[in-house]
Amino acid sequence: MKAAVDERLDGLRGSAPRLTYSARSLAALENNPRCTLRAVLDASGSDKAAIAAHAGFPTPFGQSPFAIARGNAFEALVKANGCAELIRVLRETLKLTLPEVAYQDLNDVGGNASPEVRCTRTRQLLVNTALGKFPGTLYDHPMLRLQVGGHTVFLEPDLVAFRIEDRFHVVEIKSFPIIDDQADPAQVKAATTQASAYVIALRAMLAEAGIGPDAVSDTIVLVAPKDFTNSPTAAFVDARKQVATLTRQLTRIERIGDLVSLLPEELTFDLAVDEAGKAQRPAEELAAALDQVPALYRPDCLSHCEMAFFCRSRARACASLDVLGPTVREQLGGIDTATMALGLARGELTADVDQAEMAAALRHAARLRAEVLGQPGGAGAAA
Amino acid sequence: MSKVSAMAHLEAMEQMRAVPLTVFRHRRLSIKPLVIVPLTMAGEAGAPLAAMAGTARTAPKLLVVDQPRNRDQRFAFAADLGRIVMDYINSHRLHRRDVTSRGDGPTSRYSDAPQILVPNPGGIKVLADLGRMCRFRKTDGDYPVQPVVPLLGMWLTFLAESAEQAGTSMLLPVTGMLGEHWATGQSVMEDQNLASIMGWIAPADGVSVEQAIADAENPAVCPPAGPATSPEFDKTYLAPAVKRFDDARALGDPTAITAAETDLRELIGEQIKPTWRLMWSAISLLRAVPEAPRTAARFERDLASFTAYSDYQDEGALPQRKRDAAIGAARRLSRLERAQADFEADMAFDDSLVLADLRSVGEAFAGTVTAAETDRVVTTAKNRRVPRPRITVTTDDPVRLAPGVILISPSMPNNHKALIISSAPDEESTQITVEITGGMGRGVVPQKGTVPSLGQRIAYLPDPGWRPTPVFPEPDSIPWTHSSLADEDPDTDTDAAEGWGDAD
Amino acid sequence: MVWSMSDPLDALETRISQLRRAIRDATATGDAERAAELRAQLRRAERAWDTLVDTDDASEETRAPQSAPALRVGGSMLPAREHVHRVLMLLGVPAAPKLIVSVHDAFFPGELTSAKLSSLRRDEERSYRAAPGSRPYYLCPALAYDLLSPVRALITVSTWTVEQRIIGPLSPRVDYLASAIRVAEAVQAAAGSGETGPSPAALRLLWRFAASIPDAAPTGPSSHERPVDPRQVMDAAGAELQVHIDADRADRAAAGRRAHRLTDAQQLFGTPLGDVSKLEAEA
Questions:
Q1: How distant is the alpha carbon of residue A95 from its chain centre?
Q2: For chains A and C, what is the number of CB pairs under 8 angstroms?
Q3: Which of A66, B215, C17, C52 is the most exposed place for a label (fewest CB within 10 A)?
């Protein structure tokens, strides 16, 4: 059964190599969980950016080299000199005691940086630490493994700290500042969601060794620059809600078969890449394939999904109220398009029973606008 | 948002052009606003990259930080911007006029207040952060800054705090002003893109709205209005240019430094000038929208707070606290909520489209007077005979106001007050009987024109009214605008003392 | 638009947005040459706009002074490896390139950059393998206690004992505290030597050490204005060192015993790729 689903997913992806999830893409699951198009593209490991670009909607995403450099420089600074700054901060927040300074570098194992080797070593060290067989406190870039939809995903937290006789804490090092104890809520949320993936993976890894979930705290430690300086400070962030949400999303991925079985047999997002690396599939054909899968566009998709510009063009084309966003949408419950809303408002369309009340309210609203703007008839009635 | 506003967005979507959401512009627009377009370096708070500032379209000043990670250059930038901002603020501190003082406030006020306009809410955040970064800096000690730096910090903090209060006009994002008056066929988030919202309202000649909004999202055609520059631009142009500057400096070659600086200024100029031009186009568009009547009264409050802060500065101000103490925070929240309610009521009173929003949800109504008992008189508890006329208004609006609600009316003279007595729905329409309780003069017979007459069209909305200012325990006698560092942590200045972004 | 087209500024602004669109189109069709040409035109148009509106240079007056890096004299002609050696001998423990550069800048003349350091490390191993023992010392990587593989981020000196060159779980902290003590001693020595006293860079370095060691920095109001006391740093670092030192020595000694079974070259430059199954057996 499972194999059949995988076959379907491979078919959807076509000849392109499978993209694996990362902490970032797992975290993104939280953003529009009910979008089928996204669920299917992600589960099949399709390259959303390449698909969107070939369909005529290249994504403007990308990180500034300044932001990347700043992020790397800050992490290096925090971990420099035997994590001197980090130890200071964790002594303040996690109440690490003086003897708790042991440091394990898991960026590579004897020069071998392959994820499998690092993952084995990580499991060895962390399991033994949890069982009290090995003393350890700071684990730099441990390599965790999580099964998502039957595929292995490697995840690499910035740092995991073990507080003696207590629990593992995921430490997330971010370069956005905490100014006067306040950080940008959106950035904190993104960091927390990402850390939630680590919490889940860490728990899964320990569970294999029979260690319960309580060994991993669902409070994460956010380490970030204090005010406008380079000096780190730390804050606890409660990730319980996001761990629960992400766990739920991961379960949904396991049930991707339910979604896939509703799609046409021959459907594929293959770009038909030729030997020169150029996509040969006609763009219209690709777009038509994408159109077979229901998408749930929301304006905030624009800030995190590679498909958003494609989906927006579709939403615009059918005058969907989704393009206006939730504030307008919630005024027009039960109505999907501007055409329908305006038709009801102008009395050009007949409301069915469910829409009767909404239609009356819309007619009244249209009348009010017309009254004030001095227009005859309904709202901006077509001349 | 109500169905009337939603309708405007639907129309915009259908017609592919912006449509008015209000009759008036509810924000004061200074005859000489100071436009600031700030750009920051991605990834680092408080790392200004550039700013274009000025009070006229044809007189912009471009400030560029050659190496945004360099602390000295940051504060040199702050000093440059500080001079521009302080010159502008000081030009509003020349003329005072007397006011009738209630309480022990100042007896005179400045006759004009500054107005700084930035492209979008991100621009306000940048100025607020810059304010926070500058206001605690010292002009002596190990890391001295120019005196204008802490001054700028305090003023920007004052302005940024004022901007959080609804209805103020001293620091505003232009996208917000545009979005308040025009509805587009896109989301609030997309409306925060200046080029995009301008594309809906006034696309360039020969360019369709569709093309204009597509261009607005293409950084090659419309460089972002900031505060962040496009990652693509950073990668392709800015990073190499900054590196050239660093290399030139490392070599100490003056010719190379000058060339690198020129190059950087040109590059950044190319990114920032389209926004600058767009800002002034937007200002022209906004100027053409008539200003709402009650804007003037709100401006008086701006003048009062500007004068109060200005006088406090003249007495030798201390920088604002890093964060409010509990009581201060509660007081502040209450003030913000109050301002929001007042602003909404003001707008509804002035603007029949905003009123229509309230009417559509039953929080206001308009209709025709279908019955009137104009000579009704009652005797009060103090045995005084007063006029209490009652009228019945028939309206199609889905009124949800209950008996006992006090009403005001934009259709009547200013002091007009009324009370809902009863409300009777009848098929499609509703009959509302109200009793006029105020605004009729002192006599037993109401003055002419103070009572609505039969057949008159009239609108009513709830009186946001006078509410007692909530009383909070006084932690000390220092007013909110002022601050003391006494209870701050003693290490307020550690920022200056440590490493900064030496980019090592 | 809002203004009449008679305004030359408007004409230019129209031209500029046309150019931007054209650049977009050229880029979209992959015509890089055309795009570059249009960009040049755009710059000209922007410059013309500048002339018309007279964008002035407000920042000219306070442009940060362009301080060329001060060239210090004396000892600057030493090869980089000598500089590094001198720093490591001062610290007495394995150190990262960044710390080496900071310590060098704080106490020694001459120029040393991280870039020079990384090329140096490759040369050392090559030189050793070509003619083992022909130099009085080599700069080599620290060794991981478990796999005895090279820890490339940390540099040591070949003349140190293998135990000194091994990094156990506690060693990063132990070495950090030891460095703090040695730096504090050097600052104190410089202060005692009269003449110029410790350099600002040395005081800054000491301040950075003090900030992350409990009780090493002055506390209380306006503490940041008071200089860090080298004595206090030594005492505080020494106190914390006592907590870790025994366990660290034990780890290093155990690893050292295993290291002695290795070849000379392996004892200096580490064993090649670690065998993880070996670790599995040990764990």
A1: 31
A2: 79
A3: C52
